[in-house]
Design brief:
By secondary structure, the chain is mostly helical. The protein is about 80% helix and about 0% strand. Helix 7 packs parallel to helix 9.
């Protein structure tokens, strides 16, 4: 009866039979035509993937897996289903479930290079969760499998190099990327060579060699576009946007930020939509386009809440607090700041001290370092806006002590400049000048352009207010 029903569906709906793949799969399953049923469940899953219905896709693949398990001749189908289910859950940001199916695949896979690939995919889920040491362990396990080098080793080395960037060990990262380049030149195709260009471009960017970085990124972009590599195109457009931003070519930067978000939306990858919306929101914030920034950051927050990712929620709540403060909406700023403090109390210490996040070939624009100091700075600005200058100073002095203890120089420079502003506003020009000069000294030492400009501007205003017009003029010109 079920087989007749299946044939009837195909006959009646032959022009749109793909809409009935799940029904066909169920009828063939009940009619005990198992291999045909499996084929239709897989087709149903792929159709769901194509319309970004990853939850439905995972369910269809799980049904195909259930019918395939236990038979040795179905091993290839089982492996394919484990990987497809894992990918669907990863795109939904459900990494524990993704790893569960990858672990099952690792148990049954026989080919060494396939096992390398599975370990790498597990590592990728940990990278997306910022659990870098665990990711590094899986990458090392993959490289330790005794087999001849092949193209998979390029990707593994790329991930490993990026983790060392996150650990602020640029020399080790560059060494790993050069090894990746040698393997790509010997064994790799376009995809591997494109990744090498991207990785070396990032090294150039971090060395502040922006023209060289953009050149490497564009070489990689050309390859990725030819291969229609969506994931690679997302990270590359993000990289290029940030390089142009540093070069002050802002129209070009915005074009690539938007392209990265557009591709993320096209493939329905929630994690990357989060990051790209956040990147675009921060870029708009820096350009003073507050309403556009608010739209993008609220979108990121909605995704973070859907994924129930505390780190993501902390990040966006912090920037929303800063944005509302800039808009003069103090109550909303306080609300988001309290949310930050609430999340901070619930996060473990290791997470809070994680260093400068860079994820999957994306240059750092947002990080999770020392949010307690950053929150104190925003609290100080709120107190200042409300007219409580002594309380504002107390918050900054507390932040200064933390920044000094952790040797976080750029935050220390910012705190000194903000203290300089408060002392100057109180007419304490000598104290204000002392703090601006200290901020300027630190900013020049670490080559932090924004803080250098801010400290010089503060010093110039003090010189102007104390009648030293020529000194003020020189400082304004430097600014």
């Amino acid at each position: 009866m079920h087989l007749l029903a299946a044939e009837k569906i195909k006959k009646i709906y032959h022009g749109c039979v793909e809409d009935y793949y799940p029904d066909l799969a169920r009828h063939y399953e009940k009619g005990e035509e198992i291999s045909v049923s499996v084929d239709y469940y897989i087709k149903a899953g792929e159709k769901s993937e194509n319309v970004l219905a990853h939850e439905d896709a995972a369910e269809m693949y799980k049904r195909a897996l259930r019918l395939s398990e236990g038979e040795e001749e179905n091993l290839a189908v089982m492996l394919e289903m484990y990987r497809k289910i894992a990918r669907s859950y990863s795109l939904l940001g459900r990494f524990e479930k993704s790893r569960k199916y990858l672990a099952e695949a690792a148990k049954v896979v026989q080919d060494i290079n396939e096992k390398k690939f599975i370990y790498m995919k597990i590592a990728e889920t940990y990278i997306l969760q910022r659990r870098f040491d665990t990711a590094l362990n899986y990458l090392d396990d993959a490289l330790s499998l005794k087999e001849e080098m092949d193209t998979r080793d390029c990707k593994i080395l790329s991930h490993k190099g990026w983790i060392y960037i996150k650990k602020e060990n640029l020399n080790e990262a560059e060494r790993i990327f050069k090894k990746e380049k040698r393997i790509a030149e010997k064994f790799g195709g376009d995809k591997e060579k494109g990744q090498v260009h991207q990785d070396l471009g990032v090294i150039s960017h971090l060395k502040k060699e922006y023209e060289s970085a953009i050149d490497e990124f564009k070489r990689a972009l050309e390859i990725r576009e030819r291969l229609d590599d969506k994931i690679g195109l997302i990270s590359l457009n993000s990289n290029i946007a940030k390089a142009y931003q540093y070069e002050q070519e802002l129209k070009k930067a915005e074009k690539h930020f938007k392209k990265a978000l557009e591709i993320s939306e096209e493939i329905g990858d929630k994690v990357r939509i989060f990051y790209m919306s956040a990147d675009l929101g921060l870029y708009k914030f820096e350009q003073g386009e507050l309403e556009s920034s608010l739209v993008a950051l609220k979108r990121s927050l909605k995704i973070a809440e859907y994924m129930d990712d505390k780190g993501f929620k902390l990040l966006i709540s912090y920037y929303l607090s800063k944005l509302y403060l800039t808009k003069g909406n103090l109550e909303d700023s306080k609300k988001h700041l309290e949310k930050c403090k609430e999340i901070m109390r619930s996060l473990d210490k290791d997470f809070l001290l994680s260093k400068k996040r860079r994820s999957e070939g994306r240059l750092k624009s947002i990080d999770y370092d020392y949010f307690d100091i950053k929150i104190l700075i925003v609290e100080s600005e709120l107190k200042k806006k409300e007219g409580y200058l002594e309380e504002a100073k107390e918050k900054l002095i507390e932040g200064k002590k933390l920044a000094e203890n952790r040797d976080e120089q750029w935050l220390l420079a910012e705190v000194y400049c903000l203290l300089g502003k408060i002392y100057s506003s109180q007419g304490c020009f000598e104290n204000g000048k002392k703090h601006f000069e200290k901020g300027k000294e630190i900013a020049e030492e670490i080559e932090h352009k924004e803080m250098m400009s801010s400290s010089r501007e503060g010093l110039a205003k003090i010189e102007l207010m104390t009648g030293k017009r020529e000194d003020a003029k020189i400082l304004f010109e430097e600014t």
